[in-house]
Amino acid sequence: MPPLGDRKGRAPRDEHRRRRVPALHAPADLAGQGCVLVAETTRWFSDNSLRILIAFGVAALIVVLLLGVKDIVRRLCRESEGLIGWRTIIARVAAKTSFWFLVLVAARLVDGYAEAPPLLDKTIGLLFTIGCTFQAAIWARELVLGFVEHRAGIRTTTIVRSAWRWGSSASS
């Protein structure tokens, strides 16, 4: 009995993929894996060029939207002249969000739609994990510094100015 398809008589998506693209096994050496990655990616580009263009467009739109959200948060949570508050801390955290992190988020979101080859999918996943780790560390640093400043009731600019005055008076 043939596999059941949709109303138009097409084969299910996974069955179609299995018949059309033969699985390449990743070799153990690094040079061989590089060759397989290039071969799979080239074949993927030729087979899915429209999907890839749509995915790039959607990813670019996602990055623009995320940059807009970042800018809105920074504007809504501007620093005030008084003591540091949570709004200022949130603005600093938003300001420290990297553009490349936003690009990795967008790439990860559209990766499934473009049906990337397995090695490219794993590469995007690895880069996303590394980017998330670094971005989380940057955000954690800003949160900790902001919390310390909030609890101490001082601002970073006050500390820097005091240290600069102390350093210039000690040298004279």
Task: Please sum up the structure shown.
This protein has 172 residues and is mainly α. It has helices at residues 13-20, 30-47, 49-76, 86-95, 99-111, 118-152, 156-171. Helix content is 74%, strand content 0%.
Protein described:
The protein has 172 residues and is mostly helical. The chain is built from 7 helices and no strands. It has helices spanning 13-20, 30-47, 49-76, 86-95, 99-111, 118-152, 156-171. The protein has one domain (26-152). The model is unreliable at 14-22 (pLDDT under 50). Helices cover 74% and strands 0% of the residues.
Chain-wise SSE layout:
Layout: H1 13-20, H2 30-47, H3 49-76, H4 86-95, H5 99-111, H6 118-152, H7 156-171
Helix pairs in contact: 3-4, 3-5, 4-6, 5-6
Supply database-style keywords.
172 residues; 0% strand; mainly alpha
Total helical elements? 7
Radius of gyration over alpha carbons?
A: 25 Å
Taken from the alpha-carbon principal axes, the silhouette is elongated
Report the biggest beta sheet as strand number plus sense, adding barrel if it closes: none
Query: What pattern of helices and strands is seen along the backbone?
Result: HHHHHHH
Low-confidence stretches: 14-22
Strand content: under 5%
Provide the residue-averaged pLDDT. Answer: 77
Instruction: Give helix % range.
Output: over 70%
Give the tally of structural domains.
Answer: 1
**Quaternary organisation of the protein chains:** single chain
Global structural class: mainly alpha
The overall strand count is: 0
